[in-house]
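Go through this chain for my students:
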Amino acid sequence: MVRGKIQIKKIENTTSRQVTFSKRRKGLFKKAHELSVLCDAQVAAIIFSQKGRLYDFTSSDIQKTIKRYAEYKREYFVAESHPMEQYVQGLKKEMATMVEKIEMLEVHNRKLMGQNLASCSVKELQEIATQIKKSLHIVRLRKAKLYGDEIEKLKAKERELKDERVRLCERGSWLFLGCLRRAPRLSSGGRSLGASRVSFEDIGISRLEKDHWGRHQAAKRKRMWKLTYRR
């Protein structure tokens, strides 16, 4: 006959629960005895019933087994807790050191700001003055570098503007030459203008372009004179 699977939960019937307790207790002690004999192990089992009655089994002296168990647990807990205690102590020391350093830095910063100087000696005041001078020198160097970089940027922008001005003047010169070539075809007030009578205002040339054109013509005449003189 195949036994059905027993559901593991509390047995509500008192009589059935007592019978099951007695059977399983005997079976547990039997298995413990077999384990101690077959494997040469030190086995101990302690059971308290619902009514508080003690049942125990041990393969050797129960007191020695309990003492051995207590010693092992004590050594185990000490070994487990010792690294954690060391770690906590290390953190506490590190935290105390950091707090001390922070306090020292705050005091030093207040002295650099000119506060709490009454307790400072002459040597400490000299050291503070020297450090302030060094810091001021570093600040001035950084400030000078920033100013220098800004000046270089402005100079570069100035060069770009000058180059742009030269390009515009050259462009105006070529426009002026083109206008002179077309001068006989221009008219002002319904009458034809000759090339010799064309003014800069008639063809829309500004004074800046006019000056540039004059310098261009003077340089051209100078080059022609040098070539003629050398010959």
